[in-house]
């Protein structure tokens, strides 16, 4: 239903099939004196922004761990922990329910959580050393995903801190680059776990641990919660005018 409502929205009165000619003329008359000028998007400043690339690194770390868990946690529970189909479905969903609950309830900690946590990396590694203890392993994965839930009220909104005016552009860049990890993680896991042994899976989790640690270090060292100078639209408009003159 919501999707159908969205389809009823149009970019301008002329393209809307249900507006009468009289209404269109009225809207045109009222809007013709409205002056709109969009300053040039400061692409050079955006692409050379160190805090932006630190945020990209954080997104890569999150997405690598997230896609590894999304695509391969059920496989791990089946191949290593020997859950049947019904148990696999139930226990594979628990970490994501917890992640959702944490992401919804931890907003009041967002100022503290702007610094990324190594919790997911730590507990994923502990899970790989839990042997065949099914429920201890599930508990470790659940705690790891719970820590990942804090990402959404911390780093996920960091683009708004850097540039409220260009937050959409920043989010597109950050999410687009981070999503590329979804191409590689299934291939890496498949290549490393041909025999479905715990030892092979442990290598997968060590790689995930390394990615988490490296990207966390980058974000901790170079990330920022301060508004960037290129967020100023008036300044960008002045620079655009200078370029044209």
Automatic annotation (TrEMBL):
It is found in: Membrane. It is a multi-pass membrane protein. Coiled coil: none annotated. The chain crosses the membrane at residues 135-154, 166-189, 201-222. InterPro entries: MFS, MFS_Na/Anion_cotransporter, MFS_trans_sf. GO terms for cellular component: membrane. GO terms for biological process: monoatomic anion transport. GO terms for molecular function: symporter activity. Pfam families: MFS_1. PANTHER family: AT30085P-RELATED, SOLUTE CARRIER FAMILY 17. This is Inorganic phosphate cotransporter.
